[in-house]
Write a structure and sequence with these properties.
Helix content is 45%, strand content 20%. The protein contains twelve helices and eight strands. The termini are far apart.
């Protein structure tokens, strides 16, 4: 019963988040593709040629939505920093593959860059951020150059990537060592072919051309910490600039908090992200 109440309360909070996001000044929904889920919400920056933060929601690759999985503080906070902000939807498993999801993320980036003048953004100052499954997709697009190449972009089209508490950067390792209750989710998303699992693992693309900088954040969650550290080490070994930082917050509660609370002034990760963004955006 407690679990049921917690889920209901979380659903109410998510609905409240969606209302708050929609109430934020300047939000517009745009289509970056023809599928109903190939849409994004965009908040214009306060000045022209604003740097852009793009957010990719989580949800186990099979659920989640830009309207209720972004966290209510991100859009207003990053706009207050002088940035534009976008939160994207993407096609979901099982109707789409993870490869198609990563392609959707790349297509959204290309759409925003191609419309930079109209949207008042600086196409050369874009950071990709994602939480949970969105952290995996963001890291994959930032490490495997094929997704950006397919939309006419290089990895340098991104100034950096901020994965928030992901646990699938090395998919074969996570499927072997991760928590049992997520096994079916991983199998549905990544299948049982080890070659495909490696192909969808940012860790295994660390030697490739990468986005130039990564800020990898995680909470006190064993698989998230293990996977984040391994990705950071692999990227550093191959010459990519990486900052890795852990925050308090136990297990799945902490996993959800880093997404919901990022952007709140008193949440410890907020000033860390702010300082890193100023550095990579050159502000």
């Amino acid at each position: 019963m407690v679990g049921t109440c917690a889920v209901a309360q979380r659903g109410q909070r998510d609905e409240g988040n969606a209302i708050a996001l929609r109430a934020a000044a300047g939000v517009k929904e745009m289509a970056y593709g023809s599928h109903d889920l190939q849409k994004l919400d965009f908040w214009r920056g306060t000045k022209d040629k604003a740097p852009l933060v793009i957010f990719v929601h989580g949800g186990g690759w099979k659920r989640g939505d830009k309207n209720n999985a972004t966290g209510q503080s991100k859009a207003p906070h990053y706009r207050a920093q002088g940035y534009a902000f976008a939160s994207i939807n993407y096609r979901l498993v099982p109707d789409a593959t993870v490869e198609q999801q990563a392609s959707d993320v790349a297509a959204a980036i290309a759409y925003l860059r191609n419309n930079a003048r109209r949207l008042g953004i600086d196409p050369d100052r874009i950071v990709l951020m994602g939480h949970s499954a969105g952290a995996h997709l963001s890291a994959l697009v930032g490490t495997d150059p094929v997704y950006l190449q397919n939309v006419g972009l290089r990895p340098s089209a991104l100034k950096g990537v901020i994965p928030l508490d992901g646990a699938a950067y090395d998919v074969p390792a996570q499927m072997r060592d991760g928590v049992a209750f997520m096994a079916k989710t991983y199998q549905q998303a990544f299948g049982l072919d080890p070659a495909r699992q490696r192909a969808l693992s940012p860790y295994w693309h660390a030697p490739s051309p990468n986005a130039p900088a990564f800020l990898i954040l995680h909470v006190d969650r064993k698989d998230g910490a293990r996977q984040s550290t391994a990705l950071a080490d692999a990227l550093r070994k191959n010459g990519t600039a990486v900052k890795l930082q852990a925050f308090e917050g136990k297990g799945m509660r902490g996993h959800m908090e880093i997404n919901r609370k990022l952007g709140e002034a008193d949440y410890p990760a907020t000033p860390v992200v702010d300082a890193w963004l100023r550095e990579v955006f050159g502000r």
